[in-house]
Amino acid sequence: MLATSLSDSPLALGILVSGWGAGQLLGTVAAAVTGLPQRWGLLIISMTLVEGVAFALLGQTKEPYVAAIILALVGIGVAYSTDVSLPTFIQTRTPSHLLGRVSSVLELPRVILEPASIALLGLVLAGSLQWGFLAAAAPVLVAGAILSLDRRARTLTADGT
After folding, report:
1. What is the distance between the alpha carbons of residues 12 and 57, in angstroms, rounded to a whole number?
2. Domain ranges of the chain
3. What is the CA radius of gyration of the chain?
4. N or C: which end of the chain has fewer CB within 10 A?
5. Which of 17, 11, 147, 122 is nearest to 71 (CA)?
6. Could you tell me the pTM of the whole model?
7. What single-letter DSSP state applies at residue 30?
8. b/e per residue 55-65 (b: at least 16 CB within 10 A)
9. How confident is the model at residue 9, as a pLDDT?
10. What would the CATH number be for the domain defined by 2-154?
């Protein structure tokens, strides 16, 4: 729906997907080069707020290249934090006999919640693209604000302190 709102051409979808893919590639390489982050709390809070702002901006943009830049920036952070670093962090600290179970729990939101979330967003976007993206941004921004006010969340580190 976003690509269609930006252009009558299928090129817009290609631009958006390419932006996301480029960001994912850069984020994966960054995670491989830099290793695990030490300040998990700040990373999670920052990514939560960045994603919320990105959702809000995506609904307001009128240019596919601007949307692709937004998607690339978010893609970098998502790949770095949740696609590479978080699973690595969990898998290196989980006893081997529990890895399958822990990995299953880690993937549960992607398998169950992501499709449901996308379907719900699709219904909202059918009514209004701008309000749909703002509706998607609101709970993410609220969660980020709550986390940013929590001292334990802000000071969470890779060594568990």
Report:
1. 17
2. 2-154
3. 17
4. C
5. 17
6. 0.85
7. H
8. bbbbbebeebe
9. 85
10. 1.20.1250.20
